[in-house]
Amino acid sequence: MATAAIPAATTETFRLRISLAASWYMVILLSVTNAVAFIDRQALPLLVQQIEQDLHLTDTQMSIVIGAAFVVAWAILGLFAGVLVDRVNRKVTMAVGACIWGVMTISCGWATSFTTLCLGRMGVGIGESIAGPGSVSLIKDGVEPNARGRALGIYALGASIGAALALLGGGALLALLKDVEEVRLPVLGVMRSWQVVLAASGLLAFPLAGLLLTMRDPGRSASATDRRRFGGVGEAFGFVVTHWRVFLPTFIANGATIILVVSYQLWQPTLFARLWHLSRPEIGLGLGLITLLLSTTSQFCCGAAIDWLERRGVNRAPAMVGLGAAIAALLPAIFAPLAPTATLAWILAALYAFLTTGFFTTGLAVVTRLTPSRLVGRVASFHYFWVGMIGTGLGPAIIAVVSDHLYSGPGAISASMSTVSGLFDVVALLCFGWMMMTWPRPVAVLAGSADRA
């Protein structure tokens, strides 16, 4: 009995569907990776009071553990991670990185001094430094240009999900264990409640590492796989310097917007506690829900808007979306910290989160759109280095300095947040406008290679 041949068109359609499904599975998994990384990153700040008591640390020492110890290792090692991402197998490299940050997060729970806690926190930064450049490189090669904005938005919203889950889940676990001095667990033995939170956070990294190995590597462009053309960090830096007219406003805008988002988020709990005398559980619940619902929506909406504009032939879509968001966010940036009532403060905080969190998606979209595949891991590592040092290292200090030296009284922190947020929103707005004027036409000219735009 003869069997009918399967039409070639049907076979091709099936193959395309499988490829598309694999691409979006990869994107979702990268978003989960981002979420788990942020859970491990954000778990420690919830535990400051207990760790200080058990290890006899000062506020200054804990600020170093939370900030500098992590950020310096994450940012500097991220430059070398970019080289690895462009050179070796990406999913294996990311899986190894996940195992490293999982082990080091757990090790923080067994720290016995400021030094050992710092070393553990630096190890978390080293492991996580691979995730960002690796994810950007995979999305560049594995997602079609007309869907890349949404892919970057889905990847970026993982950070908001992770931060929210750390805030909500970690707080709930601590509340559950609040009356328990010590917990006895199989294998792990007797643990304090803060050690349980860190162990639970770190253990998430190991099943994630296994899932990362199930991704289909999309492959690299011909130029990306040409070993003779691989020039390390210097080649990528030379590319950025050569095209400084578009990358300079890009990096300034990325630095300004990360201050808008990260610094504001770090000082928001203090603002609500000092001005409205809310409890930590109330603040954690409110900000956790805002982060989970609105910050994630912001990331996806920015990516979707970029794709929508590019499908309609708008060449400068990432810069245009960034400019629009900066204009829309200006009034909330200025007035949210100055709200006259707690209810209005929550409403404006929610609006601020929705309008500003998507800036990170916009920044990644610019980098991936303008950088050829063979360089994207290294150029993305520059982006992460810059936003890490500026956003986490410098941004919060700017608000504190302005509060201490320009204002006084109980409203000093709100006035400082309003001033700094308004100022840096204007900086971002001007840089996005500058970017639109210097954006190359067509983009392939800037890429300077046969890579997919």
What does it look like?
There is one protein chain. With 453 residues, the chain is an all-alpha fold. It folds into two domains: 19-219, Up-down Bundle (Growth Hormone, Chain: A), CATH 1.20.1250; 231-453, Growth Hormone, Chain: A (Up-down Bundle). Helices cover 78% and strands 1% of the residues. It is built from 18 helices and two strands. It has a two-stranded antiparallel sheet. Helix 4 (90-108) packs antiparallel against helix 6 (131-142). The longest helix has 36 residues, at 8-43. The radius of gyration is 22 Å and the shape is globular.
Topology (SSEs and partners):
Layout: H1 8-43, H2 48-55, H3 59-87, H4 90-108, H5 114-128, H6 131-142, H7 148-176, E1 183-185, E2 189-191, H8 193-203, H9 205-212, H10 232-242, H11 244-276, H12 280-311, H13 317-335, H14 342-356, H15 359-370, H16 376-406, H17 412-438, H18 443-447
Question: What's the quick description here?
Answer:
With 453 residues, the protein is mainly α. It contains 18 helices and 2 strands.
Distance between the termini: 49 Å
Share in helix: over 70%
Radius of gyration: 22 Å
Q: How many domain regions?
A: 2
CATH class of the largest domain: Mainly Alpha
Task: Describe the structure using short key phrases.
two-stranded antiparallel ribbon, Growth Hormone, Chain: A, 453 residues, 2 domains
